[in-house]
Amino acid sequence: MKSALLWVIMTAIVCGLVLGILYGLVGKVDFTVRHLSSPVTSFPSTWRGFSSAQPCNAASGATVRQCAAYLAPASSETTWTMRTTFPEYMVALGTIVGSVLFSFFGGIGIACLPLGLIFSFIRRPKAVITHSQYIKEATELGKKARELKKTADALHQEERSGNKGRKWRKNVKVVEKELLLLEEDMKALEEMYPQGEKAETAWALTVLGYLAKLVLGVVGLIVSVAWVAHIVIYLLIDPPLSPFLNEVFIKLDDVWGLLGTAAFAFFCFYLLLAVITGAMMVGMRLVFITIHPMKWGGTLMNSFLFNVGLILLCSISVIQFCTTAFGYYAQATAAQEIFGHTLESLRGIKYLYKYNLFQYAFVIFAGVTFVYYAAFGWKKKKPSGRLVLSN
């Protein structure tokens, strides 16, 4: 307990020093502005000396008039430097960490989320199996369960002996993955052979559930395609081809005051769902990433904490991403002031957002995942016959 507390205190001190040094050195924003000037003159009795081509006052003998930004020469541009507040700087650093996770997990999840629901409908049980088929499948799953238990007991013995190296952790993750697949097969078997007095009702609800997944998958696919298309049309192409979803939100606001805001919130929340789906999907395919599934009535506390932490890290990035993507709709808001002007002008990190690096990464991951998952994701992954553990 004492060593853990000391470790936490030392970590907090080191992090505080690093953040303080970074803030002191590069915690400034550089705004590109135009230096405009105009001499003072008495209030004129007539306005004949002013026109759209010459809207500025001129001192006696002066030939350069720079009070209009549109007419001012390029030499009038200058850099206005000011120090940002420490909370804004912390938000900016958190946004970078969250943007890396968001670009990776969100790009993967925005393709896997709708396709997973659609493929779940495709892999659905078509009919109720017979009792003999149920016994056969249950016996096979029982054998796999006993093998998993035997392997888990062996790993538990290694843990007690203090042998918790890299190979042990890798083997634990392999067992966790196989256990998750086994639980999914058990659930599928129960769906194919409903039991009890309300077996027919349970089967009807199962069919309706898969139909709901199909509908949600189609809706999600439309939203995912709209997101990717909007990023390409509005963010990656300069100048933007169209405001696209910005115009949709504005027209929805014209129909009812909060309808556009609700649609804006839905698209933001959809990105968070995509992040969780992407983290789950990557964990299922990469051994070095721990799986943290969210299941109704069966979610472990560490999975709750992991997903909550992931949402908190990515939520700031989602806000920044949506503020940039819906800049036309969110103009003149506090979010755009923080995540648009300040973040994109902060020293050291402004180039990450100036050149849309995270947006490019998001679209690339989404495109590659869509092709891969559409080609291979519809195949149901079965638990392996025998566990292959690292020696």
UniProtKB/TrEMBL annotation:
Subcellular location: Membrane
Keyword Kinase carried by entry: no
Coiled-coil zones: 138-192
Lineage: Eukaryota, Viridiplantae, Streptophyta, Embryophyta, Tracheophyta
A Pfam short name: LMBR1
InterPro entries, per database record: LMBR1-like_membr_prot
Keyword annotations from UniProtKB, A to Z: Coiled coil, Membrane, Transmembrane, Transmembrane helix
Cellular component GO terms, alphabetical: membrane
Entry annotated with the keyword Transmembrane: yes
Name listed for the protein in its UniProt record: LIMR family protein
Top-rank taxon: Eukaryota
UniProt membrane topology term: Multi-pass membrane protein
Transmembrane segments: 5-26, 89-122, 214-237, 257-283, 304-329, 357-376
